[in-house]
Amino acid sequence: MDYMSHPFWDRFIEFEDRFENHDNIFKIYERLIHMPLYRHQGYWEKFRQLATTRPVKDLAPADLVAQFQAELRTEYPPGTISDIEFERALRHRLDQYHLEIFHRVSLEVNKRWQFEEKIKRPYFHVTELDEAELVNWRKYLDYEETEGNFHRIVFLYERCLVSCALYDEFWLRFARWMYHQGENKVEDVRIIYNRASCVCVPMSRPTVRLNWARFEESLGTPDSIERAKLIYEGVLAAIGPHIETIVALANLIRRHQGIEQALEYLEKTINEEGGDIYLQGCLVAEQARLLYRAKGDTKGAREFFWAKHTWYLDSRYFCINWLEFEMNAPSIGETDEEVHLRVKKVHDVLRKDSRLSPAVLKDLSHVYMAWLLDRCSTGVAKEFMDLDKEVNGYVPYRFVANNVSYPTAYTVRVLYSVAVLFIYVY
């Protein structure tokens, strides 16, 4: 089915011709005129030439020949024309039928050529493909999927994945398309994920494997859920602690074993990764998110953040999630002033005590300032303007973070001039 597969077909025809299997040769040409190949025109001409020497029954399926014969009998009742003329008319009708096939397939050939001519590397190589070639593969797959021929779509995906074997994008697309074909394609989807995960896509990019685990979980059987868990554990065993995988496994445990077991798993992982503060901060934030989002325990999540914050104030993920939690937490029974003070307290702790970079602190303050204008009532304008002055600076290149004032641009210039003068005089 490959667009450029004419060398294969030519060898096939040559093989049959060597043994003078003329019936088989004609059948091969009959197949080729239905296929959008690069040399379709030449195969059509050869088929049309051979058709003149073949019996009528070989030119089309029996039911179609019978249909054309019945139509011609209506046009030419018995006795109006001779048998030879009738056969000539029947052959002409069959030739028109094949001519329609030729025109339709020729149109498909021309449409595919606009994609085929842009494929510069049809083989596998470890170097990256040009972006233009990746775009061409995406558009080619779009076209073939629109055409709707299942076998041609599968074949084009297989061709694409020879060149693009290292790109999880195309494996994911193939798996999603196959999944969309119905429940009877479950094993085909599993095979696609297996090939991508175990053979082609590097373990350092676990996205395909995570999707495979979600697919297995979606099947809902005890075996498939256990298989999903094993996939997550396999990723962690291969690449070490990976936040997205750990969180995905924790949520799998939550969905099928309960939230307490998920919290225990996260706590166990935090204790095992004793030296990685960044990872610990991320997982502690995820514990609080589980309490808030899955369990609905807003008070417990708030107490959890406050209890842990002194250890993880240099974790950007922890700080961002803490501030977002307080800004988005339900405020039932609280006044606007109480909500304002609660969020302001967290923001002040982050600005004064956290060990984040000035740029990250600036982004956090911008989020808080936007929340002030959107959520709070009167009296916040002055706080906003004071923060705007401190965060964005009223002198170029001036930043305030952790109560440390960095030199202004003017001061830097004066010091630089004095240093140059001192060196010159010395």
SSE blueprint:
Elements: H1 6-18, H2 22-32, H3 40-51, H4 62-75, H5 83-116, H6 131-147, H7 150-163, H8 168-179, H9 186-200, H10 207-219, H11 222-239, H12 243-257, H13 259-272, H14 277-294, H15 298-308, H16 316-328, H17 336-353, H18 358-375, H19 381-392, E1 400-401, E2 404-405, H20 409-425
Antiparallel strand pairs: 1-2
Describe the structure.
- Helix content is 73%, strand content 1%.
- The chain starts with 5 loop residues before the first helix and ends with a helix.
- The chain has helices at residues 6-18, 22-32, 40-51, 62-75, 83-116, 131-147, 150-163, 168-179, 186-200, 207-219, 222-239, 243-257, 259-272, 277-294, 298-308, 316-328, 336-353, 358-375, 381-392, 409-425, and strands at residues 400-401, 404-405.
- It is elongated and about 110 Å long.
- A two-stranded antiparallel sheet has the order 1-2.
- Among the domains are: 6-116, no CATH class; 331-426.
- The protein contains 20 helices and 2 strands.
- Helix 4 (62-75) crosses helix 5 (83-116) and helix 14 (277-294) packs antiparallel against helix 15.
- It has 426 residues and is mainly α.
In the predicted model, the low-confidence regions spanning at least 5 consecutive residues are 395-407
Report the radius of gyration as a whole number of Å: 35 Å
The chain-level structural class is mainly alpha
How much is the average pLDDT? 90
Instruction: For the largest sheet, list the strands in their spatial order.
Output: 1-2
According to DSSP, the number of beta strands is 2
The ordered H/E elements are HHHHHHHHHHHHHHHHHHHEEH
- Oligomer state equals single chain
Helix content: over 70%
Strand content: under 5%
Q: DSSP helix count?
A: 20
Largest sheet: 2 strands, antiparallel
The dominant shape is elongated
Through-space gap between termini: 82 Å
